[in-house]
Design a protein that fits this description.
CATH superfamily of the largest domain: Jelly Rolls
Number of helices: 2
Helix content: 10-25%
Radius of gyration: 21 Å
CATH architecture of the largest domain: Sandwich
Number of strands: 11
Strand order of the largest sheet: 1-2-3-10-5-8
Oligomer: single chain
Shape: elongated
Length: 178
Amino acid sequence: MSNDKDGKDRGFYDGNGFDNLTGPGAQQAYDFWDRLEEMRKDEPLKGNLYDPRVSADFPQNPCNLPINLMLWPERMMDFVMLRGEPGGEFPPHTHGYGDEIYLIINGEGIVIIDGVEYEAKKHDIFWIPAGTPHTYRTPADKTESFDIFAVNVPGVKHTMRSTYWAGPPKGKKAGDNA
């Protein structure tokens, strides 16, 4: 009999079910998992906000990943370092899949949540509920970048981000609280 850490019998599961895949796609699944583990092997779980492992380049607003989260498609969260250059603005968008937090790391700028503009400076934090239109901009007169550490929960497949980033939800305009 095999027990888990809580002493529960694991006999039904061990070596059965998802431990023993069969069918025409089983080998592909095993090959995928093996390849993913091989790619992850040397990928550090420690990163630095200013030394990205992967970048998604948007005009005047790069999204930098300090850890290559793309190698963990099963992750439950996402995080990026957003760098707003002076005069740059990220387009207004809405995350339909989950909440987001902005933590201001450096510089000064404007965060706009549901049509309300907030002055933002180092160490300010903002909560953006799912379905809420939001954006940020860096005034042109600033001399340093406006750096935001953004955390999204849940995580979403990288190829789906653009699908889920859109304008305000149908029937709602930025600033509407109804």
